Amino acid sequence: MTRSTDAPSARALLGRDAETAALDRFLATSARTGGACRVVGEPGIGKSALLDHAAARAAADGWQVLRGSGFEYEADLTYAGLHQLMLPAFPTLADLPAPHGGVLSTALGIEAGPPPRRLVVTTALLSWFGLLGRRGPLLLVVDDVQWLDRASALALSRVARRLSGLPVALLTAQRSGSESFLDERTDTLTLGPLDDADAARLLRSRAAPLHPATRRRVILEAGGNPLALVELPRALTSEEERAGDRLPVVLRLTDRLRTMFAARVEALPRPTRHLLLLAALNGRDGAPLVPTLAAAAADLAPAEEQGLVRVERDQRLVFRHPLTRAATVELATPAERRAAHRHLAELATDPSLRAVHRGEAALGYDEDAAAALQEAGRVAVSRGDVVQAVARMVRAAELTAEPRERARRLAEAAYLGANFSGSLDGAHALLEEARRAAPDAVHTLGAAAAAAAHLLNSDGDIDTAHRMLVAALAHADPRSTDPAVEAAVTTLMAVCTFGGRAALWEELDRTVARFSTVLPRALVLGARTFGDPARSTPAMLAELDALVEQIGSDTNPVRILQVGLAGHYVDRLPRAAVERVVDDARRGGAVAAGANGLILLAVDAYHTGRWTEAVALAQECAEWCRENGYPTLEWGALHVSLLVAAARGDRQRLRDAHERAHRWAVPRRAYAVRTFTSGTEALAALASGRHEDAYALLTSVAPPGDFPDHDQLGVWSLLDLVEAAVGTGRVGEARAHVEAATALGLPRVSPRLAFQCRAGRAMTADARTYRAAFEDVVDDPGASAWPFHLARVELAFGDRLRQDRELRRARVRLERAVELFARLDATPWLDRARTSLRSTGRTVRRAAAAPDALTPQEREIARLAASGLTNRQIGSRLCLSPRTVGGHLYRVFPKLGISTRAALRDALTERERERATTSAAPRDDAAYGVS
């Protein structure tokens, strides 16, 4: 016999690390003392893959490997399984003693003769295995034991109990619930389902790209079964199904899965199958069926006895495996399914659920059912389930006979798919279907909104999308309550955002004014607070504050994003609500909505100094956009990453991204992308002290003192322009810019913009007033909310003091700047601050100090506060104002991990203990960045 050479190479099995390790240990032990192990699990769970792994590992280690399998059609053939298993070793029978070789030759059908007794066969097999074992360890692998013929099963069973001392391992696999020929004391490895994370990884590696909602459905209905994860996507026959728009109530099974899971359902009595069908089509809640199931307990009993379902204490029915649910639906005829849906529609108390079942029960066109489904789709949006809404709209269109109405419903579904659910391919297919249904309907407002959303998000065709929307809106009734008006205006605002040109925004302003009475207030406000934040009035901001508060518990992603975008440039983010949208997208919900939410969260994290979080959110958004084909939206995510890269001095990343941005944006006239890359280039120039370059880049958009209409960059880069102007000696221009911002009312827009205006006044103050102006900024406890800008102000203050030879005071400011820049890992800024600090005569300063290290002044203030002194008493003792003392304590508390003065004493005691331990350790001179 030759060793097995066709075993697959051993490879990592996804989610099976523990199981493969257990088999590796089994092989290592069996090579010395022999042994048997069985692998048990449901069909498709990966038993054969685990056997393949063991066989490949054994072959690689020099084992002899013999493999066999039970076959249902050979279950009645005596010793058929043993014959298959040992066939490669038949040439060695001649080496056995005459009685044993003859017995096995007869039993396996090689020679004619009377059937040998079972005990004799067992003895002969052990002799044969012993002979083979002397040539090297032997692995016997038997799959599908549940179909092994009885004679082979009994022979291997007796042998398995007598392998001790032989270098022979018997490894078998069988389905859960089937009879095993091995002793109950045999080692058993039970395979459970893959967890959701491993299931998602397997699905991504083996299936064509799927919309996240479709991927979520596949994972849910596969129930962690690897075979189902591979097979279920193959049953998705259309682009709309893969895009999540036309998914059936229960996913269809392939022939392979149907063979595995349908037989036991098919054998049930007809009344039992009817109950299972109702439960399968009723969804996962099951509440409407509770009375029906309670009244039909006897009919349900056969399914419970077979272990296919279980009834919970609240009388809800649960399928033990999702594929049994799918098999139940597969086995029903179309007429049976429609009848079941009609029954469920009668039982349903929720109007939306009733509409869904009515829609599934309908045969042919049914306008009443279509209208109810359309309304159910809009309710689904309000409840946060845009993916479900698209599916309901599509089904409503299928039931619609009138071509233009059918086209309108398809267009509404396409708009939601393109702008929110993340189904661009599906949206395109739906738009094509709408054109075929009513060629003259392509100019309707709904079709224009859907087509423009698709154009913007896929090709980035700014001008075509703008013209299409403006033309369609021009013919719409300004009093119309058609949802297409809101859809068109929302899309037009997105087009203007990426177009970045005043003329585009002006058309939006006129359109919003015309439809202001029928549009949501968040959308009306957002046209100004997002489109032209510098001109946000106090009345607008007050109304927006109220909307932010109201949206807190809302589940409608459309409304949440409208409020979120309205607050984007004026620092009013409904964080919790936006996080809900993002979390839903992570679970397979509305991906495009989630991507927009990620951008909002990433920008907020950037402004507040949580840069690691900002980059992670931006990268997650970019991955979603690439995976789902949203190249335009990806630039919003990339902008946040580039801001951090600019501040951290990653010049190569900036160069590569900017070249790519200009190649993409210029042909499409997406000038906002180009404008924002100028802002990041300017920030990078400031970081390295190239003030002239920064000034040129920023003033290429608008001159100092000018905030053009719809200039979003000017609000974000207010302090950048001031710093660039001061750094190039243009203090008068910088001062004019701050005055213009103040006159425009930017300090009233948000605390962050108020801080920047005050910082700008400090940077442009004269020699007599700059100290007080700077102290007013840096000692404000609220300033720590924006650590990057605060660090830059501390650096500017320290440099002014250093130039005036006030070295002691300068060190305090520069040490603070070093600390803040170090926390942010803003390397070029940190280098500038360290250089300035060295010039003050500071000789020993840890560059890699812990992010929460206290400055000497903070430590002294904390010590005095811990002793019970008030801020006023501490200020009197240290010659500081009470406000300055409060500012220092505001920064001390998070460093010490506390929130009250009462906890100061214990926190300081613990800190001193840590410092004593650290000082006793050998000093690492390489960690000291200032010599």
Automatic annotation (TrEMBL):
CDD domains per record: LuxR_C_like
Region listing for Disordered, in residue ranges: 911-931
Record-annotated HTH luxR-type domain positions: 847-912
Domain of life: Bacteria
The keyword Protease is annotated on this UniProt entry: no
Record key words, sorted: ATP-binding, Nucleotide-binding
Designated name of the protein: AAA family ATPase
Gene source species: Cellulosimicrobium composti
Taxonomic placement: Bacteria, Bacillati, Actinomycetota, Actinomycetes, Micrococcales
